[in-house]
Design brief:
By secondary structure, the chain is of the alpha+beta class. The chain has a single domain, classed as Alpha-Beta Plaits. The protein contains three helices and four strands. A four-stranded antiparallel beta sheet has the order 2-3-1-4, covered by helices on one side. Helix 1 runs antiparallel to helix 3.
Length: 97
């Protein structure tokens, strides 16, 4: 079975409130078997014009279905509510190889 990867970029406007989101999100990710692969490290654009935000996060799950279960979970819903007004987020799920 192919792994599932959540890829997100965020433009944080309220760092204090975003810290609360990060704690809730990390707990939910762990609960649903996710593993951070990238979490806001340094970014260097190599090609093209990335319209993305300065913070990139990649989380690996055992499958796309498990990534969706995480995203739709009540635990992550609470994290998303905590993030409201603290960051603009783009997120997608990708099937790995």
């Amino acid at each position: 079975m192919a792994r599932g990867y959540l890829i997100a970029n965020a433009a944080v406007s309220d760092a204090g409130a975003y810290e609360g989101y990060k704690k809730l999100a990390a707990a939910a990710i762990a609960q649903y078997g996710g593993r951070y692969m990238v979490r806001g490290g340094a970014i260097e654009e190599l090609e093209g014009k990335w319209a993305g935000a300065p913070r990139v996060v990649i989380v690996e799950f055992d499958s796309v279905d498990q990534a969706r279960k995480f995203y739709d979970s009540p635990e992550y819903r609470a994290a998303r509510e905590a993030r409201e007004g603290a960051a603009d987020m783009n997120m997608l799920v990708v099937e790995g190889i």
